[in-house]
Amino acid sequence: MTGPTSGTRPDEIRRHNRTALLRRLHVDGPSTRASLATELGLNRSTIKALVDGLAEAGVVAERVPALRSGAGRPSLLVLPQPHAAVVIAIDVRVEHVAMGFVGLGGEILGRDSWNLHRTRDPGEVITHIVESARLMADDLDATPLGVGISVPGVVRRSDGHVHEAPNLHWTGVSLGKRLEAVLKLPVQVGNDAELGALAEHVRGAARQSSDMVYISADVGVGGGVILSGQPLRGSGGYVGELGHMVVNPRGLRCYCGCDGCWETEVGEPALCRALGLPDDAPRGAVVATLRALDDPSLLDEFAGWLALGLANIVNVLGPELVVLGDLYTALPASVVDSVSAAVQRRSLVSRAVGGTQVVTSPLGRDAKLVGAAELAFEPVLDAL
Ligand SMILES: [Zn+2]
C-alpha cells in the first residue's frame, strides 16, 4: 500500500503523493477533497494541486454529489474516470477462460469468456486471448495499459513463467513473455489463489483484514496468504500450494505424487463424491446439487476434512479471517458455520485470537479476475 511520504525531492514527493491519491480513488471510490486531505495526511492546497493536475489530464473529474447535506455550498466529489486507465484481466481456469477490460476504479467495462473443452494448448489459449483483446479494445474504444493474468499453477512472478499448472497440463510455459511479445504491453502473471487473496483484500471480504487466508476450489485447491497487509511470497515467488498439505497419509494418491493431500479430501471430485455425483460432474450440476441440498449432513465428512486443514493453516499463519472462494461459495451456510466452529475448537491460535472468522467470498467467481486486474494496475497506477 502506498502512503504519502516526506521524501527527499519535490518532484519525487509530488509523484508519490499523486500515486497515493490515485490508489485511494481507485480502491475506495469517489471522495471529497477535504476527506482525501484527511485520509492521506496532506494539506488542502497539495490535494487541490494534485486533483487539478489529474483533472486536466482527464484521469479524474469533479461532480456535485447526488445527495447534498447541509445548506452550504456542496463539496465536490472527486471521481476516477474508468476509461482514463484500462487494463486487461484474464482468469485462466481449468474449464474456461474469463477475460475483462477493467477501468480505473475497478469497474469491469466489458467481458468475454470461452471454454477450454476442445484444447488447453498454451499457444492456442494465447492466440485466443490476443484476438479477444483486440476485438474488445475496438468495441470499447479503449487502449489498455497493462495485463494481469491468473493461472491455476505454480508461477514465477518475476517473469510470468508458469512452472507447472497440472490441471491445465501445462509445464514450463513462458506465458508472461509470450503474451508481452504479442500484445506489446506489460504482463503480470499470478497464481490464481494468490490473486483471489489480493482481490478479497482490496475489494472483497478482507478489506479490513491485514492477516487473511484465501482458499478456493476449482477442481484443485489453492491458497493465497496476506500477512501484515502484504502477500506472502516464497522462494522465487513460489508459495501457496496449501492443497498439497498432506492430511491423510492413508488417503488417495494425488497427482503430485503424495498420498492424502488436502486436495484429495476437499477438492471438487471429493465434493462430488460426498454429494453422490460422478467425480467429474459438470460444475453447474455440482452447484445446483449444493443449492438444493436437503440434508447437509451428507457433507459432514467433507466439512471435517476442510476444518482439519484450515485449523492447521490457522495454527501456522494466524490469520484473523479465512475466505472460502470459488466452488466453496456454493456450500450451504450451515456447513460453513460448522467448519468455522470446528476450526475454533481445533486451533490454539484461533482460540487465542478470539476465533478466526471463516466466511465465503462475496466476489465469488469474479475473485481471480478482479485480482488479475489489481495485479495489472499496480505498475499502471505508479506510471499514470
Ligand atoms: Zn498433492
Automatic annotation (TrEMBL):
Keywords of the record: Kinase, Transferase
Gene Ontology MF terms in the entry: kinase activity
SUPFAM superfamilies: Actin-like ATPase domain, Winged helix' DNA-binding domain
Pfam families found in the cross-reference section: ROK
Tree of life domain: Bacteria
Stretches that traverse the bilayer: none
Family assignment from sequence similarity: Belongs to the ROK (NagC/XylR) family.
PANTHER family: BIFUNCTIONAL UDP-N-ACETYLGLUCOSAMINE 2-EPIMERASE_N-ACETYLMANNOSAMINE KINASE, ROK (REPRESSOR, ORF, KINASE) FAMILY
Protein known as: Sugar kinase of the NBD/HSP70 family, may contain an N-terminal HTH domain
Source organism of this protein record: Lentzea fradiae
